[in-house]
């Protein structure tokens, strides 16, 4: 019975290990072997460029939600002081979802969409500059509401730019070796850097007059990371091996560098490409789609809108405790995303991934039994900071691990020409999960 259950849920023999680039070649048709040879000629800088893309992709989201103490101060006296995290989650992820849906629809019906990736990155850079400069101004209670809605407007804009970056980068890497997909899935490292910087500034700048300087450098650091990603984009198109691959790839247009291009082969007409899309959604990748949606519905429903309400039982000050919780979550998420490089962590069966994602529902009652702020319970069930931090780590590791497995496993089941479509589809439904989670967080408030 056990062996039958194990073979049904963990059929490892039918899947390709994510870290084995040589085995990736057997997924390609003979005429595609030359492309794989081109991929192996990529210099190491290409990997690090995609690593930078992964960091820049969700950098706005990480920067905004981690600056919890700063925005709580700026929104003081307004109705949004204690629940702005839910608004951030809902507006950012819903705008990301809507813009991603529009971009996919345009690309599906018009075959190509000319959007320079440097443009959304430059918009993010400008927004970081605005918040860096505005952090130097004195917060006024009378301006709290207007500053809140200004922030929301920028959250909507960064949600849109994030979708542009996601669609391009994931479509590109789905045509490359798995290690490049893993490079951008290390985007959790962005959250680690942001959370670590936030914690350090919280510990180092205790006096009120230094808070503005700390916040200024916080946003400037995000600006510099975005600038590196922009420069990396130009450096990528100076790599001869990459240009040769783009020139011969049936899934990209060599005449439009740095653009979003159709994710299907040019020999497919619109009707056939729509059929491929429906087939992927309803048959080939439905299990992975459900998994990615449910992962992020649970994650965003609880983090950060609920988790920031947990207080230390050992009298650690609120700002430090919240910053530490952000750091632990992002470290755990990063660890989870790296786990598939180990063979014993490679679980690619859609049935197994669905079961594990459903099991994460248990985190809801667990977090609500921690030491929540304004909780009616006098003594919480999990009355320990260490237990809470362990819970955060497990929550984050499972999030990152399952995400990496879905993005690696889903393209394996389809043909080479369909791989970019799968990357875009999984990316789209990840954002669906984020939006659902952001909206669900209002219920838990």
Task: Describe the structure in your own words.
Keywords: Membrane, Transmembrane, Transmembrane helix, Transport. Pfam families: Nucleoside_tran (PF01733). Belongs to the SLC29A/ENT transporter (TC 2.A.57) family. With 445 residues, the protein is mostly helical. It has 2 domains: 41-238, Growth Hormone, Chain: A (Up-down Bundle), CATH 1.20.1250; 274-444. The protein contains 20 helices and 2 strands. The chain has a two-stranded antiparallel ribbon with strand order 1-2. Helix 5 packs parallel to helix 11, helix 10 packs antiparallel against helix 19 and helix 15 packs antiparallel against helix 19. It is globular.
Which features characterize this protein?
2 domains; mainly alpha; membrane; Solute carrier family 29 (Equilibrative nucleoside transporter), member 1/2/3; two-stranded antiparallel ribbon; single chain; Growth Hormone, Chain: A; disordered N terminus; 445 residues
């Amino acid at each position: 019975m056990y062996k039958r259950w194990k073979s049904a849920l963990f059929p490892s023999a039918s899947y390709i290990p994510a870290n084995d680039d040589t085995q990736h070649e057997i997924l390609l048709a003979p005429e595609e072997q030359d492309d794989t040879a081109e991929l192996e000629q990529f210099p190491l800088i290409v990997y690090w460029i995609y690593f930078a893309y992964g960091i820049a992709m969700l950098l706005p989201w990480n920067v905004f939600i981690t600056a919890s103490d700063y925005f709580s101060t700026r929104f003081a006296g307004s109705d949004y002081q204690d629940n702005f995290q839910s608004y951030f989650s809902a507006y950012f992820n819903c705008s990301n979802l809507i813009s991603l849906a529009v971009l996919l629809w345009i690309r599906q019906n018009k075959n190509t969409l000319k959007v320079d990736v440097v443009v959304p990155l430059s918009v993010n850079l400008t927004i970081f500059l605005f918040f860096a400069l505005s952090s130097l101004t004195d917060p006024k209670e009378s301006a709290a509401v207007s500053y809140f809605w200004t922030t929301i407007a920028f959250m909507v804009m960064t949600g849109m730019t994030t979708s542009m970056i996601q669609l391009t980068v994931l479509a590109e890497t789905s045509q490359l070796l798995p290690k490049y997909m893993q490079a951008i899935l290390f985007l959790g490292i962005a959250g680690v850097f942001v959370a670590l910087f936030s914690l350090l500034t919280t510990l180092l700048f205790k006096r009120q007059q230094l808070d503005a300087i700390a916040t200024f450098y916080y946003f400037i650091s995000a600006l510099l990371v975005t600038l590196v990603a922009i420069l990396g984009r130009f450096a990528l198109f100076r790599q001869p091996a990459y240009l040769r691959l783009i020139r011969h790839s049936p899934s990209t247009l060599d005449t439009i560098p740095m653009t979003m291009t159709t994710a299907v082969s040019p020999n497919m007409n619109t009707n056939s490409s729509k059929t491929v899309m429906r087939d992927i959604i309803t048959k080939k990748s439905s299990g992975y789609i459900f998994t990615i949606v449910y992962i992020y519905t649970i994650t965003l429903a609880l983090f950060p809108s609920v988790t920031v309400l947990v207080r230390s039982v050992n009298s650690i000050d609120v700002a430090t405790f919240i910053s530490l919780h952000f750091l632990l979550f992002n470290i755990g998420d990063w660890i989870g995303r790296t786990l598939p490089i180990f063979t014993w962590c490679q679980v690619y069966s859609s049935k197994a991934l669905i079961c594990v994602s459903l099991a994460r529902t248990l985190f809801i009652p667990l977090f609500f039994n921690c030491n929540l702020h304004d909780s009616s319970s006098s003594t919480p069930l999990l009355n320990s900071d260490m237990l809470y931090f362990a819970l955060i780590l497990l929550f984050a590791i499972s999030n990152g691990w399952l995400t990496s497995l879905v993005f690696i496993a889903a393209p394996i089941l389809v043909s080479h020409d369909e791989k970019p479509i799968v990357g875009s589809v999984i990316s789209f439904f990840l954002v669906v999960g984020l939006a659902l989670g952001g909206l669900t967080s209002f219920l838990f408030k």
